[in-house]
Amino acid sequence: MVEPDPVESPLADNEALRLAPGDAPTQQQWEAAAAAVLRKARRLGDDDADADVWARLTRTTLDDVDVPPLGTAASVADLPGPGLPGQAPFTRGTAAARSEDGWDVRVLLADPALTNQVVLDELEHGVTSLWLRVGDGAVPLAGLDALLEGVFLDLAPVVLDAPDDPLAAADALAAVVADRAVTPAAGTNLGVDPIGAAVRHGRDADPDAVREVVTSAARRARELGALALVVDATVVHDRGASSAQELGWATAVGAAYLRLLVADGLDVDDALALVEFRLAATDEQLTTIAKLRAARRLWHRVAEVAGGAEASRGQRQHAVTSRAMTSRHDPYVNMLRTTVATFSAGVGGASAVTVLPFDAALGHPDAFSRRIARNTSALLVEESHVAAVTDPAGGSYAVEHLTDGLARAGWDELGRIDGAGGVLAALADGSVLARVEETAVRRRAEVATRTRPLTGVSEFPNLHETLPDRAADLTGGVGVERWAEPFEQMRDARTATPAFLATMGTVAQHNARATFAANLFAAGGVDTVTAGPTEGPAEVVAAWTEAGRPAVACLAGHDRTYAEWGEELVAALREAGASWIVVAGRPIEGTDDSAAVGVDAVAFLGRAREQLERQSA
User: Reduced to 3 states, what is the DSSP secondary structure of residue 141?
Assistant: First the structure.
């Protein structure tokens, strides 16, 4: 490596920023440094080996794929090569270089009151393609021509989403294109996905009906010069699927459609050219990047087995910021979630990205939230230059390790679906959605114990916020289990009576646990009143009485204070008439419940709310 010219580099004279030859830290040095931190935090014993840091710090995904704390060359030594961008197996992207425009900025429009002016405004301010949800509760099919007035259909792709009658929507779009005598822009898609629509709306996926819709859509698409199908894997993501289950589902549905098209007489390469995949992007940055890369690897293998030419095996990817990760409460935090998700989708190589507005969980977005959504992509592409490099994560030990792990786990899920007889059979026997539900249960437990924290919901809640007023979206929330819902249901039904924080001792002595308890109660829609600094049981009981004798009294103090007069305070509160006494921290003799880090917050709050509601009844 050539040393920088000390005249040209402002860092050249800073010896602290330079490594002399041979000075690269060893793995043993890193283990020793990490072990020292863990011992200080009491997460590693003095007698434990430094190498035990790997076991302490390695976490697993919901697919039980290991995510080590540090990527190493050894972790990728035995992995297959990811190839180059634009080359098989397309792990690193379907094109050798990214477009100068970065990615296709695709807006979802579903408001039944949508106007042509809104459509044009989106296109004039950075949107490059339209995703139109058509049907009941969404954009009326009859108004499609007027809605697209002034839209250059040969420049801006239109992607349809009409689960109730996809062929009628396809015919309506074809009529608009024919009337204007234009060739639809590359990427225009009839958006047909009968299997996904059946899962989204809780309908049976009849094999004969699926075959008819898929093959008919393919004929219409070829006549129109457009894509025909969208394999929408967000339908299982929104129900709680893990990344590997989403990958397995997408690959299985794509393979099912491919078989139907080939059986109808299409060449494999022609059939491959009709399909686009839609995947969810979450705020779990590395997982999203790896998932998109793994999806391309899996689809390449399926296309290869099907006999497709290498040039036809690349996967068209449309990434959508996750509906499930968004919250209705403190919705402005969703801006942060969607920014991370969009960054991850771009780095992961998605060719089209939809940023759902931060208020989408509340209803149809307004002009401000739509602008923030499209500007998220604009800022990442134009100012942060995220798309300037093709596959910037390529070669990262951590990302390559995770990509391989998710690809293998996704392939295993595909095998389970195929072993059931294919995706339609796996839906019919309930096996595929049963596995998704098992994952959803596991995630719910992580949310409940706050090992998967949700900022603004389970952590740092703003109980007295005023939510934006939005017209209800009757279609966008169908089939979506948002992770925040258990807490938000409690927040929506705030208790009339507050809980009492029996703050023990000085502010310095009680502040940490009082803050913990107040946030915990607020997450469940319970306000709190506090005793303030106190010097003994008598002052706490007096403050409790003055507060109206709340049914729930929570002790909050230091362990030493608990030891000194905790039991005495519990007895005094009992004698005064307190019916349900809890403690922030480890249990104290005589208390009814306790809450510490790792508690099942949903269950604890349910018990507390029951006591408060009984008092106010």
Answer: helix
For the record, the structure tokens of 202 come out as 């809780």
Smallest CA-to-CA distance from 343 within 403, 397, 283, 406 is with 283
pLDDT for residue 25: 81
What are the chain's domains? 104-426 (3.20.20.240), 493-616 (3.40.50.280)
DSSP 237-295: HTTT--HHHHHHHHHHHHHHHHHHHHHTT--HHHHHTTEEEEEEE-S-HHHHHHHHHHH
- Residue 228: which of 237, 220, 240 has the closest Cα? 220
- In this predicted structure, what is the pLDDT of residue 99? 86
Give the CA distances from residue 443 to residues 237, 242, 265, 284, 450, in Å, rounded to whole numbers and listed in that order. 12, 9, 43, 14, 10
Q: How far is CA 156 from its chain centroid?
A: 28
Please list the alpha-helical segments (H only) found in 503-596. 507-523, 537-546, 559-576
Is the pLDDT at 536 greater than 90? The verdict is: yes
With contact defined as beta carbons under 8 Å apart, do 215 and 260 qualify?
yes
Which pTM does this prediction carry? 0.93
Closest by Cα among 71, 94, 83 to 405: 71
Nearest by Cα to 578 from 565, 569, 586, 588: 569
d(CA 264, CA 259): 9
Compute the radius of gyration of the chain from its Cα atoms: 28
Q: What is the pLDDT of residue 19?
A: 53
Query: Which pLDDT belongs to residue 548?
Result: 94
Q: Which residue bears the tokens 């049914």?
A: 551
Model confidence band, residue 101 (pLDDT cutoffs 50, 70, 90): confident
Looking at residues 180-197, what average pLDDT do you find? 97
Locate tokens 């807006």: which residue? Answer: 107
